[in-house]
Design brief:
This protein is of the alpha+beta class. The protein starts with a helix and ends with a strand. It is built from 28 helices and 30 strands. Strand 22 (about 760-765), helix 20 and strand 23 form a beta-alpha-beta unit. The strands form seven sheets. Strands 1, 3, 4, 5, 7, 8 and 10 form a seven-stranded mixed sheet that branches. Strands 13-15-16-18-17 form a five-stranded mixed sheet. A five-stranded parallel sheet has the order 20-19-21-22-23, with helices on both faces. Keywords: ATP-binding, Kinase, Membrane, Nucleotide-binding, Phosphoprotein, Transferase, Transmembrane, Transmembrane helix, Two-component regulatory system. Pfam families: HATPase_c, His_kinase, Response_reg. It catalyses: ATP + protein L-histidine = ADP + protein N-phospho-L-histidine. InterPro entries: CheY-like_superfamily, Galactose-bd-like_sf, HATPase_C_sf, HATPase_dom, His_kinase_dom, HisK_dim/P_sf, Sig_transdc_His_kin-like_C, Sig_transdc_His_kin_internal. Its EC number is 2.7.13.3.
């Protein structure tokens, strides 16, 4: 029952709205309709002699006009013969039905008889309607106005069909109106189908002003809405439908202007046919816009199938208007009228039905818009049938725009209320989301770390049997796991920032050290990319005041983002000072970003591209952290040219000293340190500490008792590398963040010469995230301690590494001695067999062989072989003994050549030449049936001694040669084990490797250099 009442009330509302619109139209019509006592022309005479011409009313020159089927000269039209000619007939103006076209040109005539008491200099006005298609008005034989060009032949004729108004002064008691008309453009007769107006100049001006004011009102409304649509498109809603509204509002405006005065098309200089086509297309477009306009407003019936049909019909109509000749267009007007009427009726029916069925209050305004349009269409049809001449009616447009505006405002307020509800719900959901992400991140930490650890252990296992492709895929999986750990960190930090639970621990920090440290932390993600990372921050740049852990996080996120969007090119960091703030610039030559992406950069969970595998929090967290420090973050980017990231941090009150001050400070501290080193005993352990912060060095040094530890401190990686050559250190403690050469890079350099067991390294890091710890281990650290440093933890971890080194020292010595000696069992057996054979053949040779064999065994097992280097003379004695034994065994198959300069006095790694000679004999010359020659060449150079072992044997297989040259000492094969051992010791002691050249079936040359200093 309530539904029925609701429907009835809505129907009643529709009826009342339509009645109100009709009443307003009738009031407008009654105001402009002519009075009932207006005269009518009879037999070509309009007689107003017995009445005064009203000053506030326009007369309609309706009635009988004389028509001549020719263009009669206005000056001779009063000729009696012409006047009473049989060809003259009477036609009632306005003509409702033009009938068949009998003549393409003719003359209309009307004589106006004025009141004899009227003033002789009265000002009058006549308005000629649009005559198809050209007309010319003569008053008392004088041409006073025209539309187009009237002619009796199509060559001279020019159609226009535009109305015009003429103002004139008449001194006679009557006027003779002659109107020439011609039409060679259409199939219709040149008829007057609308009313001709006559009045005083004052009344006509008033009539025209009302018309123009109504037209201006409509024009202003349509222009305002068109501009409003453009502004909405530019600043609010960039969708093509908005531009459709813009064009749609302009089309009715153009139609109204053309209907009022077709002469506005003259500036296009079009022929009448194309002018008519253009006006028809505009009218068609205005109708189509109304259909689409109402479709957009509809909610329930927006996707009705008839709209698609109407779209195709309107498109077909536009095509026909362009292609069809104008004569056919006049014939097809009925079809266009049917299309307009059908589309309007459907749209209005949908709008009213939606209003009746819909429960929202905004739908009433759709009904108002539809009814206003319907009212305008109905009255337009009535005007065309009854030939009303009423000024432009603006109220229909006013109510259409009122309904449209009210609908959108109402929808806006309804949407605003919905948005408020949704915002409250989203805020609640956002809190739940953050809580869920935080708890999920914490729960994912443990399995994620286990996955990364397990994957890394499999990847690093030299005994696994993974194929190369699976090995690379495993590395890729580990990197993905690390990336996910970054994401988990970001989620946790974002949650802390939102809750305000993230606190800073500021201290004086060197920006250079942080930059280079982060550079090395990010090396693993630059694999496969040709990216050069560089810092131009000067060595004397002042210190900053920041939380070291968060500074590293800021740099890590910003640089990680730059690397992600830079496939090849450079990433450069620079810094300068502005207003007591350090301004750090990160410039990259990557993909860059457009304005749309930049506008969303600092929104949570926003990615820079669709393929971005991040979560979109890195930049936002960096911005928040920078702001917590009191700085700002700005980004300027150009697509395909790169990005510039600027952020500021406060300067510290105390500036960082330059490198010269560090050196000076170190020199002044040397005497005290030398005293300690001079008094150390065998139980003292040597520790090298590397940190660019003198305060940290002082604190750490104080933790180790001088009686048990000999500690040396340096403030740069360069100084650490120099100190590394001076002593054999039991432990090196390195800060990860140091300028120019970071702690990570320094560890890598050390690992080129010392293994994990030979030189333990303890890394000091500001962050203890698994990815940071992994980076330290990946570069070669044995263990790590996070800052701020816990004294007990530092001492315990340091002592554990030192004890570990010494606990396996003896085992390493035995293993190293075995690797150096390379005594194979079959070599011993073969040598003893040779001695036994000589005992019955040649006892002298047997005695010499026993002598050299004893020397060889003594030299091989000599404890000095465990030393770092031995004199060249002792090494050559061992080689000589070995070669004597081999020559006795193989006789003519083995030839030895010596090419040694005199007076060479250097130390070399023990059993280094012997290993190379043995390899040349066993794997080179003796592999050939005819044997071969081995040459030992030692040449004295200006700064070095060049040592070479050359053979003309079978050469080295390219696969084995590649393994030897790769420097990989973890190969499981036994081939070349002596060469690898020698190569490893040369690299550790002198920083250089063996140089191997080999050609199959031609021989091998292995050489190395020993520096003299």
């Amino acid at each position: 029952m309530s539904l029925f009442k609701n429907t009835a009330s809505r129907v009643l509302t529709i009826v009342l709205i339509f009645i109100a619109l009709t009443i307003l139209r009738l009031l407008w019509l009654s105001y402009f309709l002519p009075s009932s006592n207006q005269p009518v022309a009879h037999e070509g005479i309009f007689d107003i002699r017995h009445q005064q011409l009203p000053e506030d009313e326009v007369l309609h020159l309706n009635g009988e006009w004389l028509y001549y089927p020719d263009l009669v000269d206005p000056l001779t039209i009063n000729d009696r013969t012409l006047t009473y000619s049989s060809s003259v007939n009477r036609q009632t103006i306005p003509i409702k039905d033009a009938g068949k076209k009998a003549q393409s040109y003719g003359t209309y005539r009307l004589k106006i008889q004025l009141n004899t008491n009227a003033a002789k200099d009265n000002h009058y006005a006549i308005r000629i309607p649009a005559v198809s298609t050209a007309s010319a008005l003569y008053i008392n034989g004088k041409l006073v106005g025209q539309s187009g060009k009237v002619a009796s032949n199509p060559q001279s004729h020019r159609g226009q069909a535009a109305p015009y108004t003429v103002y004139f002064t008449n001194e006679q008691s009557e006027m003779d109106l002659v109107l020439h008309v011609s039409n060679f453009d259409t199939s219709e007769s040149p008829t007057i189908s609308k009313r001709v107006l006559f009045s005083s100049a004052t009344a006509m001006i008033h009539h025209q002003q009302v018309t123009k004011l109504s037209l201006a009102t409509i024009s202003i409304m349509l222009i305002i809405f068109a501009l409003f649509s453009i502004l909405v498109f530019l600043f609010i809603y960039r969708k093509p439908i908005v531009l459709l509204f813009t064009v749609g509002f302009l089309l009715p405006l153009a139609d109204e202007l053309i209907t009022f005065d077709r002469s506005i098309l003259d500036w296009l200089h079009l022929e009448y046919a194309w002018s008519f086509k253009l006006s028809s297309v505009i009218y068609l477009g205005a109708s189509f816009f109304f259909v689409q306009f109402m479709r957009v407003l509809l909610v329930k019936y927006r996707y009705a199938k008839c709209f698609q049909l109407f779209f195709h019909l309107y498109a077909l109509g536009a095509l026909l208007i362009v292609l069809l000749p104008i004569k056919w267009l006049y014939i097809s007007n009925l079809l266009f009228f049917i299309l307009y009427a059908a589309s309007f009726l459907f749209v209005v029916a949908f709008a009213l039905r939606e209003y009746i069925e819909n429960q929202t209050q905004s739908s009433v305004f759709i009904a108002l818009t539809a009814l206003s349009t319907t009212n305008g269409v109905i009255w337009g049809l009535i005007k065309s049938i009854y030939v009303f001449d009423i000024p432009v009616y603006p109220l229909d447009y006013l109510f259409i725009m009122l309904g449209f505006s009210s609908y959108w405002f109402k929808r806006f307020f309804e949407n605003t209320e919905q948005i408020k509800v949704l915002v409250a719900k989203l805020q609640k959901d956002d809190e739940l989301k953050d809580e869920f992400l935080s708890s999920s991140s914490q729960k994912l930490w443990d399995p994620m770390n286990k996955m990364i650890t397990l994957g890394q252990s499999i990847y690093d296992n030299p005994n696994n049997k993974l194929v190369a492709e699976d090995h690379e895929n495993l590395k890729y999986l580990i990197d993905i796991g690390r990336s996910m750990s970054f994401t988990l960190n970001d989620i946790l930090d974002y949650t802390r920032l939102k809750e305000g639970n993230l606190h800073l621990h500021k201290k004086v920090i060197s920006i250079q050290g942080a930059v280079y440290g982060v550079f090395d932390m990010l090396r693993f993600i630059t694999n496969g990319k040709q990216i050069h990372m560089n810092s131009t921050i000067s060595q004397s740049f002042p210190n900053i005041l920041a939380d070291e852990k968060r500074l590293i996080q800021i740099l890590f996120n910003l640089l990680h983002n730059a690397i992600k969007y830079t496939d090849a090119g450079s990433i450069e960091i620079s810094a300068h000072i502005e207003k007591n703030m350090a301004v750090i610039l990160i410039h990259d030559t990557g993909l860059g970003m457009d304005d749309s992406i930049q506008s969303r950069l600092f929104s949570p969970y926003e990615q820079g591209s669709e393929n971005d595998d991040g979560i979109g929090l890195g930049l936002l967290i960096s911005k928040k952290l920078i702001e917590l420090h009191g700085g700002t973050l700005k980004i300027h980017s150009i697509p395909n040219k790169g990005s510039d990231v600027y952020f500021t941090l406060p300067l510290a009150m105390e500036n960082v000293k330059d490198q010269h001050n560090y050196l000076k400070h170190e020199i002044t501290a040397v005497p005290a340190e030398e005293k300690i080193l001079a008094s150390i005993t065998e139980k003292q352990f040597k520790i090298l500490m590397v940190d660019d912060d003198l305060v940290n060095l002082t604190i750490m040094r104080s933790l180790f008792a001088p009686t048990e530890y000999a500690v040396k401190t340096v403030t740069s990686s360069e100084m650490a590398l120099a100190a590394l050559k001076d002593n054999d250190w039991d432990l090196v403690i390195i800060d990860a963040m140091m300028p120019y050469i970071s702690g990570y890079a320094l560890i890598e350099m050390m690992r080129e010469h010392y293994s994990l067991l030979e030189l333990p390294i303890l890394l000091l890091t500001a962050r203890k995230y698994p990815e940071d710890v992994y980076i330290g281990f990946a570069h070669g650290a044995n263990d790590y301690v996070t800052k701020p440093i816990n004294a007990l933890e530092l001492k315990v971890r340091s002592r554990a590494l030192i004890d570990l080194k010494y606990s396996i020292h003896q085992q390493l010595q035995l293993e190293t001695a075995w690797l150096q000696a390379q005594i194979q069992p079959h070599f011993l057996f073969n040598t003893l067999n040779t001695i036994a054979s000589l005992s019955t053949i040649d006892t002298d040779r047997m005695i010499n062989l026993l002598h050299h064999f004893g020397e060889y065994l003594h030299a091989s097992f000599d404890v000095r072989n465990l030393q770092r280097v031995v004199p060249l003379k002792e090494e050559l004695e061992l080689v000589n003994s070995y070669l004597y034994i081999e020559q006795q065994r193989f006789g003519q198959l083995l030839h030895i050549e010596w090419d040694i300069d005199n007076h060479i006095n250097i130390d070399i790694p023990p059993i280094s030449i012997q290993n190379l000679v043995e390899n040349a004999i066993r794997h080179g010359v003796l592999k050939q049936e005819k044997g071969g020659t081995v040459c030992i060449r030692i040449k004295d150079g200006p700064d070095f001694v060049a040592i070479s072992v050359i053979d003309n044997g079978v050469g080295i297989d390219p696969t084995i040669l590649h393994e030897l040259q790769s420097g990989n000492d973890n190969k499981s094969t036994n081939s070349g084990i002596g060469i690898r051992n020698t190569d490893l010791r040369l690299k550790r002691i002198y920083g250089q490797r063996l140089h191997i050249e080999s050609t199959l079936n031609k021989g091998t040359t292995i050489s190395f250099r020993i520096p003299k200093n």
